[in-house]
Automatic annotation (TrEMBL):
Transmembrane segments: 34-53, 60-78, 90-117
Name of the protein in question: Uncharacterized protein DUF2809
InterPro entries in alphabetical order: DUF2809
Pfam (any one): DUF2809
Keyword terms, alphabetized: Membrane, Transmembrane, Transmembrane helix
């Protein structure tokens, strides 16, 4: 793994962040708020890390998915309450507070989408 700035991925990460903020501010309930927001959140993380890490896209995708699952399972075990941090609004917004199996599905589909796009954009190996 090496470090290299990828301006395209950084711009995409910024656009996904802006989209997530707009969803959070203007949509308080519904499919887009909950499911699409979770789908986009892993894509945002992937693009952010891809913007400065030169790493295999499968490894990065797996890492982002594991991270998202860990956050979701922290919600299942009510980690913020266990650490007496449930009154911290920013932490509650970032980490969430309610476990949903549907979130795990949305994260998985988000990473699958990224991996498909990466695979389609990867340079084919030349046959000799």
């Amino acid at each position: 793994m090496t470090y290299k700035l990828n301006k395209t991925c950084l711009a995409l990460a910024f656009l996904f962040l802006l989209t997530e903020i707009l969803i959070a501010v203007y949509l308080k309930t519904g499919f887009i708020r909950y499911t699409v927001g979770d789908f986009l959140s892993v894509i945002l993380l992937y693009c952010f890390f891809k913007s400065f890490l030169k790493i295999n896209h499968f490894k990065l995708g797996a890492g982002v998915l594991v991270f998202a699952f860990l956050i979701e399972f922290a919600q299942y075990f009510n980690l913020l309450k266990l650490l007496n941090l449930e009154d911290h609004k920013l932490l509650t917004i970032i980490l969430g507070s309610t476990f949903q199996v549907g979130d795990l599905v949305a994260y998985t589909f988000g990473i699958i989408t990224v991996l498909i796009i990466e695979q389609l954009n990867s340079k084919p190996h030349e046959l000799h």
